[in-house]
Design brief:
By secondary structure, the protein is an alpha/beta fold. The chain has 11 helices and 11 strands. The protein folds into 2 domains: about 160 residues, 3-Layer(aba) Sandwich (D-Maltodextrin-Binding Protein, domain 2); about 100 residues, 3-Layer(aba) Sandwich (D-Maltodextrin-Binding Protein, domain 2).
Length: about 325
């Protein structure tokens, strides 16, 4: 009798132990999911979020609503997700800048990795230098010569801490400290500032392809080790005579720390499947974004490595935010 009772107790414990997993996998998601983008509409992160959210909603049979929460170089929106309930109903579509660089430069209420549960790295993102057509420069060298001549003041728009730092690195490398940096809430607004003629130049994460094709922006160089398939005629910064100017960012999906592993794995499975779709790869490639898709562990490694890399660059350049 005692043996039978013990067996029953062990069996009940085993069944109960599986209930949380069964409950999560069977009921999630039972309501709409919000996907927070810590930048304004039209920027690099927003573009990726809207491509992914539609397909993810279809796969999960629930609405995935993109919510733009810009401000403070991505810190405001990122912090909202870090403080959200870890139940899988608040996600973060972030870039390397807000995730790994902003906490190094500003007071943030989150840590790049400890405060989050990485889900998947979605795409790698490159940068291109673009100017307003009225700027009398068709190469980077001509832009630098124009800046040094001081015949007219020149300005650079930056919608994220990463672009601010890349811009500062370029100005230091080119010896043009007098180019004025103007801050904007996201890469969409920073691009529009150049299109409107409010600012002369920006370092754009390929949001500007339509404007380039329409002749409303002129590309001068890409910040990469090789030319962009989307702009094969545009040289790299190294080809333009500036070494050490290869930079890239990424877009990735995260949840608050403590989110059940079953939910993280479910989301990872769907996101990596979506990123691997030929139509998704084509849409990302059209704006020079390289489709990736990764495991949560691989994405966590990327975040840790990027945090260390940017900490080193900030220290080596003695960069101060807002300088």
């Amino acid at each position: 009798m005692t043996v039978n009772l013990r067996r029953r107790a062990l069996l009940c414990a085993a069944v109960l132990g599986t209930l949380p997993t069964l409950a999560w996998s069977d009921t999630y998601p039972s309501k709409p999911i919000r996907m927070v983008v810590p930048f304004s509409p039209g920027g690099a992160t927003d573009v990726v979020a809207r491509l992914i959210s539609q397909k993810l909603g279809e796969a999960l049979k629930q609405s995935v609503v993109v919510e733009n929460r810009p401000g403070a170089n991505g810190i405001i929106g990122t912090d909202i997700v870090a403080r959200a309930a870890p139940d899988g109903y608040t996600l973060l579509l972030n870039t390397a800048g807000a995730q790994t660089l902003s906490p190094l430069l500003y007071k943030a209420g989150y840590e790049p990795l400890k405060s989050f549960a990485p889900i998947s790295l979605i795409s790698n993102i490159g940068f291109v230098m673009v100017v307003h057509p009225s700027v009398p420069a068709r190469t980077v060298q001509e832009f630098v010569a124009l800046a040094k001549s001081k015949t007219r003041p020149l300005s650079l728009s930056a919608g994220s801490s990463m672009i601010e730092l890349i811009g500062a690195s370029f100005k230091a490398s080119a010896g043009i400290p007098d180019v004025v940096s103007a801050s904007y809430k996201g890469t969409g607004p920073q691009m529009q500032a150049v299109v409107s003629g409010e600012v002369d130049m920006t370092i754009d994460p390929f949001n500007s392809m339509a404007m380039i094709k329409a002749g409303k922006l002129r590309p001068l160089a890409v910040f990469a080790s090789k030319r962009s398939p989307a702009l094969p005629q545009v040289p790299t910064m190294q080809e333009a005579g500036f070494d050490g100017m290869a930079f890239n960012s990424w877009a990735g999906l995260l949840a608050p720390a403590g989110t059940p592993k079953e939910i993280v794995n479910r989301l990872n499975q769907e996101v990596t499947r979506i990123v691997a779709l030929p139509e998704m790869k084509e849409k990302l490639a059209a704006i020079d974004y390289e489709a990736v898709g990764s495991t949560p562990e691989q994405f966590a490694t990327t975040i840790a490595e990027d945090t260390a890399r940017w900490a080193r660059i900030v220290k080596e350049t003695n960069y101060k935010a807002g300088s």
